[in-house]
């Protein structure tokens, strides 16, 4: 505007002179003169109508329709709706759209979702605590043991049970995209559906391979169930991956079905050692530090993210959501149903405990110990 004002003040030849001095195009100075003659136009947009990059949805007419189709709840088992079983993150939505032939980046997804009037709707969740004077020392001890096993190409697994989950139209933690004003409706009360029941996901995470296995139990979470989950991992994955396996290291928290004080856990591990011929090293995390267990922040957190706000309406849905959990770092998870029953209240006698071939480590023997086969010549 200042160049136009100078041109106007100069009179005849002012536009040419102002153009030479300012290096602005004569047409630009001419438009400035028009604005000066019409002061009311100064509060309006400077950009011409239609200026700037066109909207993605304008350039690609089918983009919004395809995105909305990905976001809609899918019919169960429909092969065209793969995202029904994965987290609808911006990255994954963009990847799916690119696979459908659209040119779109993850940074464009929030704006497109806004155009569709989609927003996040919530469920909820929280907590943890505790401190032990030898907490850090136990972490260092576990780390040294893990390195020792990995140097010898022996498997190290992190295990734990995820909390029991109700099957049916019940509230699930987290939030996901759905049309504005239409959150996913679930039952008002969390009373167990007697026909569907509940499931217990027990996980085994291979630390070196960044690979997971989940045994989905339908009965009680006991020491026998925990050890059978390890047994299934060995049968399905472990033996084929570690051909020279002679030892197995397990890291676990200190409570629950794999608790450091639980007799049935140790008794069941002894049976596994006898069956397989493996020496099993166990290291428990100190009290109040279960979230430091690798399986929590390398596997379970991604499962939780993947099924956020998704009611687990059936066994099929629970298995599908777990098995389709992936990460950019290559995590893959296998999941299968364990229909066995695991009765509560099984007592392990003093005589049975005395028969265990257990060697306790010098450092915190209540947390660190190994269980060896009672028949060391047994073929693996």
> How many domains comprise the coordinates?
3
Q: How many helices?
A: 13
Oligomer: single chain
Alpha-carbon Rg, integer: 31 Å
Assign the structural class, choosing from mainly alpha, mainly beta, alpha/beta, alpha+beta, or little secondary structure.
Answer: alpha/beta
Gross geometry? elongated
Give the second-level CATH assignment, the architecture of the largest domain.
Answer: 2-Layer Sandwich
How many β-strand stretches? 11
Instruction: Please trace the helix and strand order, writing H or E for each element.
Output: HHHHHHHEHEEEEEHEHEHHEHEE
CATH superfamily of the largest domain: Ribonuclease H-like superfamily/Ribonuclease H
Distance between the termini: 87 Å
Stretches where pLDDT falls below 50 for ≥5 residues? 73-86
Quote the average pLDDT: 83
User: Which percent range describes the beta-strand content?
Assistant: 15-25%
* Residues in helices, as a percent range: 25-40%
| CATH fold descriptor of the largest domain | Nucleotidyltransferase, domain 5
The first-level CATH class of the largest domain is given as Alpha Beta
Biggest sheet: strands, sense, closure? 9 strands, mixed
């Amino acid at each position: 505007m200042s160049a136009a004002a100078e041109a106007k003040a100069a009179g005849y030849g002012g536009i040419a002179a102002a153009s030479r001095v300012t290096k602005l195009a004569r047409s630009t100075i001419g438009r400035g003169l028009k604005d000066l003659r019409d002061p009311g136009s100064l509060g309006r947009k400077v950009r011409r109508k239609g200026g700037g990059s066109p909207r993605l949805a304008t350039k690609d007419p089918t983009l919004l329709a395809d995105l909305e189709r990905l976001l809609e709840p899918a019919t169960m088992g429909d092969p065209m709706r793969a995202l029904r079983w994965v987290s609808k993150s911006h990255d994954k939505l963009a990847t799916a759209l690119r696979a459908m032939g659209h040119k779109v980046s993850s940074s464009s997804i929030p704006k497109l979702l806004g155009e569709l009037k989609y927003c996040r709707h919530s469920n909820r969740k929280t907590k943890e605590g505790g401190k032990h004077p030898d907490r850090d020392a136990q972490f260092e001890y576990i780390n040294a043991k893990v390195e020792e096993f990995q140097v010898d190409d022996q498997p190290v697994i992190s295990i734990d049970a995820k909390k029991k989950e109700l099957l049916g139209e019940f509230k699930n933690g987290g939030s996901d995209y759905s049309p504005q004003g239409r959150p996913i409706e679930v039952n008002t009360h969390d009373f167990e559906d007697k026909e569907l029941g509940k499931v217990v996901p027990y996980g085994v995470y291979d630390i070196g391979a960044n690979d997971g296995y989940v045994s989905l139990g339908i009965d009680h979470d006991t020491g026998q169930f925990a050890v059978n989950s390890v047994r299934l991992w060995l049968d399905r994955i472990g033996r084929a991956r570690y051909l020279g396996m002679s030892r197995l290291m397990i890291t676990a928290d200190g409570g629950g079905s794999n608790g450091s004080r639980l007799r049935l856990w140790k008794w069941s591990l002894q049976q596994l050692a006898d069956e397989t011929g493996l020496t099993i090293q166990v290291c428990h995390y100190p009290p109040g530090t279960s979230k430091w267990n690798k399986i929590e922040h390398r596997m379970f957190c991604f499962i939780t993210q993947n099924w956020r706000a998704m009611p687990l309406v059936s066994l099929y849905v629970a298995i599908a959501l777990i098995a389709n959990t992936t990460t950019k770092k290559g995590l893959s998870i296998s999941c299968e149903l364990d229909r066995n029953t695991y009765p509560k209240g099984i007592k392990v006698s003093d005589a049975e405990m005395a028969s265990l071939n257990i060697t306790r480590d010098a450092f915190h023997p209540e947390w660190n110990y190994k269980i060896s086969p009672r028949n060391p010549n047994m073929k693996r």
